[in-house]
Design goal:
Number of domains of chain C: 1
Largest interface: A-B, 40 and 46 residues
CATH architecture of chain C: 3-Layer(aba) Sandwich
Strand content of chain B: 15-25%
Strand content of chain C: 15-25%
Oligomer: heterotrimer
Shape of chain C: globular
CATH topology of chain C: Pyruvate-ferredoxin Oxidoreductase, domain 3
Shape of chain B: globular
Structural class of chain B: alpha/beta
CATH topology of the largest domain in chain B: Rossmann fold
Largest sheet of chain C: 6 strands, mixed
């Protein structure tokens, strides 16, 4: 059967690269959809002026090559650093980083936490699938204790890192954590982070367990997992993935506001000695 | 013309500003920190962005981001910091980001001697990344050349969309000398001034011509990736043809312009018997050595390499072929001497002089003594029946 | 491509050897800047450890009427030694130098006839006394140096020490004929 109307999201996509390479049932599609819905509701017709920066990992393929905008696919872990360079070089661009737990919480955590400390004017979406999904599902800093992966064949024994909570403790302006089953809240958060809270560091963690290396290994179908997540991940409650909801929402001056203040001091007589 | 008394590190910073630098990211490390000290003071006042990054990995990636956004950008580092930047340099090669990386060499490996000059990073600057790639490596010998070659570095980086490493050392970086600077430097233009944004941003029919670099945010929907990609940036991590074509083009883009990139100076007798091949700080005692040798009746010459990579082996060979003795003084255990050995024929004796650590230079007298001793041995051998 | 002939290059070097905290690098920087303002080509280099205070320091200035060919001389025309640590760091270079004026308290006796040991460190701020002594060998840069020193935060005391140094320098020049050659070659740099 032929669709009479194109799906709204196709205007944000490079149609020539479809379909996506994600596994059937992958939650990356949900994150993508929530983001596009947010753009749609914000009235963004064309993503000119937006730059999407990602690293290495499944979620890094959400923007590159799919999103029809300027996209930079960087090295593993370095997305936030490249994004910082882009934002500071061209402050009028909207720079969005999308990355996974390996990318942002492990190899790139130093960049993430310092961008948060600086309240760098970036929106960072962490798609937390609990493992390194692209490379056979090795354990990551967010892999739940006891979970068996190729690098923890007898069950993960390292304590888990609560990324959103850590970032909330820095100077970041906006921090939220949602599960893919909280679709509307996630969409609204992205919307908010691009409109009401449009400056400083905005961080949204999305719990999106890897369909192949988490859900399948648990012996569940995607449907069963979604049902389970809907039960566990209720907004504003503590969950095994940490607290679900908006952890922080402020509108303090961002890095650029502060930098331009600093420049004013430099040009108005402060000798810098 | 402006004449100032500057350290090599200050000269690098000044040259960058004169070339239109608008973004600097860096992490403090001895002996390169003065570059960032200078820019921390000057960039904010000149409409630029300065950021002290959390580490060198961040610094180089920020610089790549800024360069892709169309802004002249640079970072400076030393020793272990340069090691950390190798990953980002490789990425810059792949996405063809025009960046300038200054490495003020100190004695390594490891933490080594942070305040002591060395020239041990030549091979690392050339080959430090995984995979096949070519970056341009320039080696200044004085604060004056630190200025001149940094200006050149921006020109080459933007002209060819290739990372350029300015390989300075502690002697050059911390030594202060008189530097003459033009009143105005022409801001380097992408592709030496001929950019057609309708052409693919990652492909070119003419291997010598780099593809255009449209700035971010102007609606070109750029697809930039460090993975193997086709001429429009679409990732292709499977096919032989795409990868081979890409890495070959990235190499030929630089080698095809070697006459623009390879710089050197010669001082001394034509077809000298004793040739000294030197670069960076150690080319200066080498020059004194050549003068002294000539004053005592020897036929001697100095080939000073300003570009260390890519090496123009034809030029090197043209000087080495006439020499009976080639001396290569280096503040390391022997690196550029391999280039000389590649081009030297059987009749040429290649002798390295190696010294590193403690902030001790190779003195002119040591070069003279070595040259005379080896020349004596060569003569003796030739006179044997 | 330059093709110079065998022309003699006239480069003269003045060094100060001491210990971190004595202001050795600052003194040579001021000397270099003053000489630069007098129209000379200068190169100022130093060797010191990672530590700010306490380590050995040797700093020197190469002076010439032409662009400096080689800022790594194997010995110096004039050395002011303020501490044994600095002498130890560059022993060969210093001991083969033309004239050495060493502190009599902090530098071990050097039994060579071109070494003169006097009180330097106890005469005032060590680096300023050293600068003063050097100035006696190149009187033409005295005014420029005084200007540079006046910009320092403790200008008055520094200038006093500097003047003490100048006096010591001229006394030494009057007493020791072997210093004359060095003074002559350095003086010639600026006067003609």
């Amino acid at each position: 059967m032929r669709c009479l109307r194109k799906h709204f999201s196709r205007k944000y996509l490079r149609e020539e690269v479809l379909p996506t390479p994600f596994c059937p049932g992958c939650f990356n599609g949900v994150v993508m959809n929530a983001m596009f819905k947010a753009f749609e509701e914000l009235g963004v017709e064309r993503l000119k002026g937006y730059v999407f920066v990602s690293g290495i990992g499944c979620s890094s393929w959400i923007p590159s090559p799919h999103i029809k905008a300027d996209t930079i696919h960087t090295l593993h872990g370095r997305a936030v650093a490249v994004a910082t360079g882009v934002k500071l070089a061209k402050p009028n661009l909207n720079v969005i980083v999308i990355g996974g737990d390996g990318d942002l919480a492990a190899i790139g955590f130093n960049h993430l936490v310092h961008a948060a400390r600086r309240n760098m004017d970036l929106l960072v979406i962490l798609v937390n699938n609990l493992v390194y999904g692209m490379t056979r599902g090795q354990a990551s800093p967010t892999t739940p204790e006891g979970m068996r992966t190729v690098t923890t064949p007898y069950g993960a024994y390292e304590p888990v890192m609560d990324v959103a909570e850590l970032i909330a403790r820095t100077n970041a302006n906006y921090v939220a954590r949602w599960c893919v089953v909280n679709f509307n809240q996630l969409k609204n958060s992205i919307k908010e982070a691009l409109s009401k809270y449009s400056r400083g560091f905005r961080f949204i963690e999305v719990i999106a367990p890897c369909i192949t290396y988490v859900v399948r290994y648990e012996g569940k179908t995607p449907g069963q997992k979604i049902k389970e997540l809907m039960k566990v991940c209720r907004p504003n409650t503590e969950t095994p993935y940490g607290r679900i909801g908006i952890l922080k929402a402020e509108d303090k001056p961002g890095y650029l506001d502060r930098y331009f203040e600093y420049v004013k001091r430099a040009t108005e007589g402060d000798k810098g000695e | 013309m402006r004449v100032e008394f500057l350290s090599g590190n200050e000269a690098v910073a000044k040259a960058a500003l004169d070339s239109g630098l608008k973004f600097y990211a860096g992490y403090p490390i001895t002996p390169s920190s003065e570059v960032m000290h200078y820019l921390a003071r000057e960039l904010p006042k000149n409409g630029g962005m300065f950021i002290q990054s959390e580490d060198e990995l961040a610094a180089i990636n920020m610089v790549v981001g800024a360069a892709l956004a169309g802004v002249k950008s640079m970072t400076a580092t030393s020793g272990p910091g340069f090691s950390l930047m190798q990953e980002g340099l490789g990425y810059a090669v792949m996405v063809e980001a025009p960046i300038v990386v200054v490495n003020v060499m100190r004695a390594g490996p490891g933490t080594g001697q942070a305040t002591k000059a060395a020239q041990g990073d030549v091979m690392q600057a050339r080959w430090g990344r995984h995979g096949d790639q070519v970056v341009v490596v320039l080696a200044p010998s004085s604060p004056q050349e630190a200025y001149d070659l940094t200006v050149k570095a921006f020109e080459i980086a933007w002209g060819l969309r290739v990372p350029v490493v300015v390989l300075s050392d502690e002697f050059v970086g911390h030594g202060r000398e008189v530097v003459e600077m033009p009143d105005k430097v022409k801001e380097p233009e992408p592709g030496w001034g001929s950019e057609d944004y309708s052409k693919p941003p990652f492909g070119s029919d003419d291997p010598r011509k780099p593809p255009p670099l449209p700035p971010l945010g102007e609606g070109y929907d750029l697809l930039i990736t460090g993975s193997t990609h086709d001429e429009w940036g679409y990732r292709d991590v499977h096919s032989f043809e795409t990868h081979f074509k890409l890495v070959k083009r990235l190499k030929e883009k630089v080698l095809g312009n070697i006459e623009k990139v390879f710089m050197y100076e010669y001082f001394g007798d034509d077809e000298a018997d004793i040739l000294i091949v030197a670069y960076g700080s150690m080319s200066r005692p080498a020059r004194t050595a050549v003068r002294r040798l000539r004053a005592t009746g020897f036929s001697a010459g100095l080939l000073k390499l300003k570009t260390l990579w890519p090496m123009n082996y034809d030029v090197l060979r043209s000087y080495v072929k006439d020499a009976r003795v080639v001396i290569v003084p280096e503040l390391n255990l022997g690196q550029v001497v391999y280039d000389v050995r590649i081009v030297a024929g059987n009749g040429t004796v290649v002798v390295p002089i190696n010294k590193v650590g403690g902030g001790v230079p190779i003195y002119a007298c040591e070069i003279v003594e070595k040259a005379q001793k080896v020349w004596g041995e060569v003569l003796e051998e030739a006179l044997q029946p | 491509m330059s093709k110079n002939t065998h022309t003699q290059v006239q480069e003269h070097t003045v060094a100060i050897a001491g210990r971190g905290g004595q202001g050795v690098v600052l003194a040579t920087t001021l000397l270099a800047r003053a000489a630069f303002k007098k129209g000379l080509y200068v190169a100022q280099l130093q060797s010191y450890g990672a530590e700010v205070r306490g380590g050995a320091v040797v700093a020197y200035v190469v002076l010439s009427k032409q662009p400096i060919e080689n800022p790594y001389p194997e010995n110096y025309d004039l050395v002011i030694a303020l501490h044994e640590a600095g002498v130890a760091r560059r022993r060969n270079e210093i001991l083969s130098s033309k004239a050495i004026i060493a502190d009599e308290d902090l530098v071990k006796p050097i039994p060579k006839d071109n070494v003169i040991q006097v009180k330097i460190v106890k005469s005032g701020t060590p680096n300023m006394v050293a600068l003063g002594i050097i100035t006696a060998f190149i009187p033409a840069i005295t005014e420029e140096l005084r200007k540079e020193i006046s910009k320092l935060w403790n200008a008055e005391e520094n200038l006093r020490s500097f003047d003490t140094g100048v006096r010591i320098g001229f006394e030494l020049l009057g007493k020791h004929t072997k210093l004359k050659d060095v003074a002559e070659s350095l003086t010639k740099l600026v006067s003609s």
